Structure formats: C-alpha cells, structure tokens
Amino acid sequence: MLSKVYESLGISPQVYEKGEKILSSLEKRFKEIDEIAEYNQLKVLKAMQECKVSEACLLGTTGYGYNDLGRDTLEEVYARIFGTEDALVRPQITCGTHALSLALFSNLRPGDELLSPVGKPYDTLEEVIGIRKSKGSLAEYGISYRQVDLLEEGRFDYQGIENAINEKTKMITIQRSKGYQTRPTFSVSQIGELISFVKKIKPDVICMVDNCYGEFVEKTEPSQVGADLVVGSLIKNPGGGLAPIGGYLAGTKEAIENAAYRLTSPGLGKEVGASLGILSSFYQGLFLAPTVTAGALKGAIFAANLFEQAGFKVVPNSTESRHDIIQAVTFGCAEGVIAFCEGIQKAAPVDSFVIPEPWDMPGYDSQVIMAAGAFVSGSSIELSADGPIKPPYTVYFQGGLTWNHAKFGILSAYQQVKNTGLMV
Ligand SMILES: *Cc1c(COP(=O)(O)O)cnc(C)c1O
Which residues surround ligand 1 with Cβ inside 6 Å? Predict the structure, then answer.
C-alpha cells in the first residue's frame, strides 16, 4: 500500500524496499534521538513556564519597540535554555552570518586578535574576518586573525593553539558544525575541553561558538560547558521551521550588551527594536524545535546508511554519534551533487517542479547548487541540500520539518542519483 504511494511519487519499489530494510536496523538509534527530543522539549517548556510566557507576549510592538514584553521575555527564555546570563533574539538579525558578524564586531576592538583554533571558519565568515578581502571586514578595522588548523581526524592541535594565543588574543571562535568541510562536527563535550584549555592559558579570552545546526541535537549546549557566547540562525534549528527570519546570541551579560549596542545604537541597546507581529512564530517555532531537530537528525542518519551502503563516502558515517543535523555525501563528480539536489527539490512541498542549477552565490568562492522548496525562503531546517561545485564534490544535506518528509526526500535523492547511472 505505502509502496504504491511512493511509486506514484517516483520512488521505485526496489528503492523503497532498500529504505525499509535500512530503517529496521536503525530502531535503537531513533529511540535515543526521541529521548533527547523529550528531554529538550521539557527544557523548552520549563523555560517558557518559568519566564511566565503569556498571551500578551505573543503580540508585538511597532515603532521604537520600547517595553516589548514578548521580545524581552523571549530573550529570557533563550537565556534560560542556553544557561546564559542574557540573550539577544531579534528579527533585525537577518541571518546566521549577520549574527556571527554582530558577535565579532561588537566584542572586538581595533588592535585585538581573533583566533580560530578549529581551522578555517564557514565560507561567509571569510569576508567578515577579512581572510578574503572585503569592504567593512574586521581586518579593515585593524582586528587581526589567526587560525590553527585541525590535526588528522579533526583533533585539536593543542600545542599549536597554545603557541597562537598571545597578548592580543581577545576572542576565539569555535565552529561546532562542519559547514562545507568534511571534518567531523564537534560534540559539546569536545568543545568544553577546548574552552577549558584556552581559558587555562588566558582566562579572559571570550570564547564564542558558532552553534548553527547544533541546537537541541544534544541535551546540553556549548554555553553550558564554558562558552561565553553561542550564536545561531532562527531559520535553522531553534526557529523550528516557523520563524521566518532572525538570529540569536546567548551569552554573558557583557557580551550581549556589546552586541545590543552594536545592533541598534550605543545608548539604546536592547531597549529598542520593535518585534512587529513576528513573536508568536518565534515562540511556537522554539517550542517545536526539539522535535523538528529530532526528525532532521533521523533523516541524516537514514541518508548516511543508505548512501554508505551504495558505496559513497559519508560524513558522519552510518554509525558515528551525531552533534549536528548535517549529512555530507561525497560523490567525486559534479553530476552526483546535482542529481542529489534535483531529487531533494522534487520532494519539496513548494517549487517541486523546478530544477536547481549551480550559481555564483554571494559570499562563496565557487559555484554553489542549492535545493530547497521551503515555506521560508532559504530555511535549512526545512528539507534542503546544497554543495559547492568543486572537488571533492560533496553535497550537504539537512533538515526536514517532519521525519516522514525527510525520509521521502532522501529516497527521492537516492532514486535520482540512481537514475543518472552513478550507482550499480
Ligand atoms: C548556516 C551557517 C552559517 C551562516 O548562516 P547564514 O544564515 O547562512 O548566513 C554560519 N556557520 C555555520 C556553521 C552555518 O551552518
């Protein structure tokens, strides 16, 4: 019966059967994911109750946005969930890159140095930092940058990190998720170890974590193991698919105050910034985020198992533990990346009839192909896949607002790659 419906949507009975066989071997792992989701659901609920979220919080303000109860309460809820002193959660933060850029520009001053102890940061941050020359970069403001690459298997180069920390080092940036790389994603506990090491050498260094795609994947967040600041996008995990825009920063009072003065204006800080009518989607999305993240995580594990069995290199592999929702599949040729993305697009609720193509996307140094038929444009907590068209030709898959949709999307991508003749 189900097989027939899948067939009517372009999935052959063989591919469907293959998927079912793999799924029957994943029951135990899926149960563990459900348990983390249950824990995080209660954590979110408890924070909302303790902060006395009320019906009035779901309304918004206009104009300056003074005394925006919903906005201020939501920031308290985030601070509680992340275990931080304060948070900044705003629709005026346009995306993840903006949130990270805000965190860096507001907490660094001319003459300071930023250190990445985990290798090259996410592509769009290269221009923020000035690794690639760009107008308005940190480099233009006299803020220098150093990087310590990871050792084999993604291990931290502790000796190199110790050597790199100097009197100018003001802040370190740790990217939790792999981004467009094939290194492993770091667990919260690994991040905690790295932060303690850095703080032993220089206690007043501000430790920031790019938390994109990591929220609610584990029971704890990096801010609970020493990070002074965690930063992410609301059109990824914590927006739960409902937030139509926005970013968040959660951290120390000092770091958040700096960020607020930069986002709005010195002297104004958190006091302004009207929420318009957007807050109910922020609250409801956050409430759904643990379950949505769990569905996406199941999808990632399912994809890893399916494509690994078909002979492709997958990161993380089929059995590794998970610390973000991203799944990388390496095809070794552009056709594989393109076919995978076409399959994801075909599975979308919106724009399923369009065919994605590689393009020169701003902020990236090679062509990129993106597949997404999302309710929120560009939202990557929704079923989506993207990859730079350059060796080793790896596609990065993530999201799925429900597990059932993630499953269908992966079967569709698999079918499309199969149809191109890339698999035997
Ligand atoms: C998505 C992402 C960003 C940037 O977020 P945008 O919203 O695309 O600007 C930064 N770092 C990591 C690890 C990401 O996954």
Answer: 95-97, 100, 122, 124, 175, 177, 179, 210, 212-213, 233
> 352: pLDDT confidence band, cut at 50, 70 and 90?
very high
Q: Give the span between the Cα atoms of 81 and 50, in whole angstroms.
A: 11
Q: How far is the CA of 170 from the centre of ligand 1 (A)?
A: 23
Q: Cα(51) to centroid of ligand 1, in Å?
A: 29
Q: What is the CA radius of gyration of the chain?
A: 21
Element (H, E) at 209: strand 206-210
Please, what's the largest Cα pairwise distance for the chain? 67
Compute the distance from residue 344 Cα to the ligand 1 centre, in Å: 20
Amino acid at 96: G
Mutation test of ligand 1: which of 90, 94, 97 has the most ligand atoms closer than 8 Å to its C-beta?
97
Q: Which fold has domain 2-41+287-419?
A: Aspartate Aminotransferase, domain 1 (3.90.1150)
C-alpha–C-alpha distance, residues 121 and 299, integer Å = 25
Q: Residue 281 to residues 233, 243, 399: CA-CA distances in angstroms?
A: 14, 5, 18
Residue 424 amino acid letter: V
The CATH 3.40.640.10 domain(s) of the chain lie at 60-276
C-alpha to C-alpha distances, 325 to 55, 142, 295, 405, nearest whole angstrom: 32, 36, 9, 15
Q: Which residues belong to CATH 3.90.1150.60 in the chain?
A: 2-41+287-419
The model's pTM = 0.95
- Tell me which fold the domain 60-276 belongs to: Aspartate Aminotransferase; domain 2 (3.40.640)
The per-residue pLDDT for range 391-418, each reduced to its tens digit, is 999 999 999 999 999 999 999 999 999 9
Taking only the tens place, the pLDDT of each residue in 173-200 is 999 998 777 788 999 999 999 999 999 9
> Does the pLDDT at position 154 exceed 70?
yes
Q: Which atom of ligand 1 is nearest to the CA of 124?
A: 4
| Dist CA 236 CA 242 (whole Å) | 10
Read off the pLDDT of residues 104-148 as tens digits, 9 standing for 90 and up: 999 999 999 999 999 999 989 999 999 999 999 999 999 999 999
Contact 107, 259 (CB under 8 A): yes
User: What is the whole-number distance in angstroms between the Cα of residue 100 and the centre of ligand 1?
Assistant: 9
- Residue corresponding to tokens 């199969």: 418
Q: Are 238 and 93 in contact (CB under 8 A)?
A: no
Kindly give the residue spans of alpha helices, DSSP state H, lying in 83-137.
96-107, 123-129
Cα-to-chain-centroid distance, residue 60: 27
